[in-house]
Amino acid sequence: MSSSSRGAQASEPSWGKRSDLDVLNRDIPRVDGPVKATGEAIYTHDVRLPGMLWARVLVHPVPRAEIESIDLEVASEMPGVVYVEALKEPGDAVRYLGDDAVLAVVAAETPDQAADALRAIKVKARRLAPVVTPAQALEDGAPVVSRRRDADSNVGRANERGDEAVADAALAGAVAVVERTFEIPIQHHVCLETHGHVVQPAPDDEQVTVYASTQSVGGTPRGLARTLGRDASKIRVLTPHMGGGFGSKFGPGLEGAMAARVADQTGRPVHLMLTRSDEFAIAGNRSGSRQTLKVGARSDGRLVGLKLDADKHGGVSGGSLPGPPYIYTVADDSAVASRIRSVFTATDGSRAMRAPGHPQASFAMEAAVDELAYLLGIDLVEMRIRNLDSEVHHRQLRRVAEEIGWGEHPHRDRPGRAENGRAVGIGFGVSVWGPGGRSSRCDVTIRPDGSVVSATATQDLGTGARTYVAAIVAEELGLAVNMIEARIGDSDLPPSVTSGGSVTTGSSAPAIKDAAHKAREGLEALLVDVLEAPVGSYVWRNGQVSVRGDSTRSLPWIAVCALLREPLLAQGEFRDFLHEGRIHGAQAAKVEVDTLTGRVKVLKMVACQDQGLPLNRLALRSQINGGMVQALSYGMLEQRVFDEQDGFLLSDNLDLYKIAGAQEMPEMVALIDDEDERPSVCGMAEAPVIPGHSAIAGAIHNACGARLTRMPFTADNVLETLYGKI
Amino acid sequence: MKDFDLKLPDTLEAAVGELPAEYSRDGAQVLAGGQDIVTVMKDDIEQPAALVSLQRLGLDGMQWDERGGLTIGATVTIQTLAEEASIERGLPALREAARSVGSPQIRSQGTLGGNLNQRPRCPYYRHPSVSCFKKGGSVCLAEFGFNKYAAIFGGGPSYYSHPSDLATVLVMLGATATIAGPGGERQVPLAELYVLPDQALDTETVLRPDEILTSVSIPAPAADARSSYLKYKERASYDFALAAVAVSVNRGDDGVVTDARVVLGGVAPKPWEVPAAAAALVGKAMAPEAWTAAGEAAVADADPLEHNGYKVHLVKGLLFRALEALV
Asked: Between the CA of residue A77 and those of A83, A106, A114, what are the distances in Å?
């Protein structure tokens, strides 16, 4: 194989002028759309291997218990049962409803046999006080539930910032002050594909193959190396298609370790995917919080003082919450004081989830901004602009306000009132994110027959990553997207990043661009003697190459590739100047509230986001729409419910853990902020999920004067806010 | 789910013959569309050794009589009730109730008989690891635990709310169920089909374990009656009722209400008739004052638990909206 270093490097790669782009910055249908729509796409769940066993885990039904016995005898003698292992012994404690509550693993010839075996395992346990709510955790004498064995309290060390006396003084001098306590429940990721793996064992000198539903194809071999007792290089991880992650799938987890162990022990392929109820019990969540926020403003609306006292509810983990003032600024920074601590419960630890902590912070801060605007009689959009530093936010707010009809809305500086029990309102919210970019590699291979492969060990969580792996190369080489084969989801490919923090595009796209650029220059080096122009003076477009300024000197793509005697390999790497991670967003929501029944119907949502060069406008709008949908579902419906008496997780299914469906969808408008002309790329996953529920709560308040301080905005919440609790 | 035998009898007598005289957790049960019983089995609530399918019994017909009454076979699908043009014309409230059930998939498979005989949705009852009165246990965890969806009327010792939309509207319409058993057929008014938890805990109806609900007959509504069914779903895409109202109003030439019926769903262990609400409408003009008074009368006897007091507001609001829509 020839290497791209043959030709002299004529120039650095660049995204080019937007007006010159033929492929990027347009709507590109997903390259894997047809196989996903037809069901041909193989997800980890769908993998079937010869001789494969079906494994399941047994989760203890309540969070805290002392195990007296686990009797595997009946289960292990059942038909088809191949493997049964207890993970706890008599005397062991179950300390929380999470991976610590997994009592046993079974594997059988069929899924039904595995389920039957699970049910046949006889567990005797002494149930202990559940400690599933923060209130229970904070009671005097509550059992300590922290994961740290030396912990002596259910309260983590408080993170204190600022000088409370200075903040108090500023608040005392404010013209308007609002103080509220906000309650935000724990949210599940609800990936359509639950967590899990299929592990195919192999002799020591060969690679074990692991199909994984993971956000880290590249990191998973290391995560399983110890369990499998082999070097990570002897483990190959494949994620051909994936049904969502949202931050919950960074490592193999206990379920991956169990799949690997059973495969190792039995020598047979093992399929272990969590059920939905297992998933909701042990596979992570977005932390909840309780925030008491006090904010003051001058008569012109400028914020002058702020105090936040917050508890994060991350189960046995710490949870997430960025410090105040969230996105907004206070006239004098020294007048901001906060105290944020974690309150631990005996429930599954929180994990990263799409903008960890940010939607929670947004909910409280946007509410305070709304209420101060009303107290001072200031337009909600104007109030925001006066307290946001970035001009980008200003223009985005004006844009979403225009799109949602704010100018014609009858009550912009005070809440409306219901007529005949019906009211319409509009609310707003803003977002920021810093999507990173870091080391990533990509190989582009061009073969003499004209075929092109773009390969990098990234993964497509459903975002559309696979499509730009092909499209960036297509743009550089003047080809159609379907002429490029995108290879991803394989740990043996050139390494790329774990998909978290919106880093995937900002890391992998520059490397793909770099490889494509090197490949192009490699071809141009061959053309020097043929078309008699130096490297860097060719135009690649519509499957042709021509000398810039002389279209008569040209060759079709296939003829160029015929000049190759062997495949041309171009190896690209992350180039920092091709990426910039600093994005902004604004959203608006319009709702109708029926104050007689408590029904909130979201009528319309509008989002505007910047992000530099949009690689694929269709995928970008999909991401923005997905953010609005997820935030709507979070705000309107989602609630994790524990029985507080015994500690059962009641909402361990999609009947009671309610997520929005087609009937909940409003009109949605996703606007790409094209005033942002930065010649760089970055990811877009987190920002659009941050403000949607805040804008909906603001719209409810704007409609009828009811400020909902807890989520979700279900009928009980609306009616109790309007009329009081019965 | 435990393995079970699937029985496919060709006659009603044979079907009844497969059913046990006494209730037990592993006794044979009736299978119609399977949308509820199969989930009950998957969640290990009951473990019937056999399911007796009604598929071959020809219970999937519908017949209008000459006066405008309708008889519907037990295995007519809910989707049929939602789509049938004659029902839309003659019994619009029944159509609205059918349309509000589940998702398109559930409506296409679920049946009238199955909907009327479905088991409670209380999350404690449905949780495989929880023991409760309804599952032979000795406690109702909902009473002092999570009871947002529980009953505000007729509860105790168990506090589930009845999930059937069709039951609520059929009680309002004065329907009668035909039930087949070892001794032949009997007729039971829908209003008497359901029992409260203080009368029975292992069932929600007067059906005996060896009986099969075969059809429901709805009398012809009065010519001047207008009726509707309004259901509040927390999740619009598919959900059971937080609360629902089935109402019927007759008015004289002067617009004054001469007769009314009000039945509530989702708020009691059975469809909850509120004659006081109906009485509050009679003799009044159809106007907000009367609707509000009817709402107050409807909830006068409500006895909510810790988390379901909102249903008191909700019932009033829903009844107002349902009546408003009949003007």
From this structure: 10, 12, 12
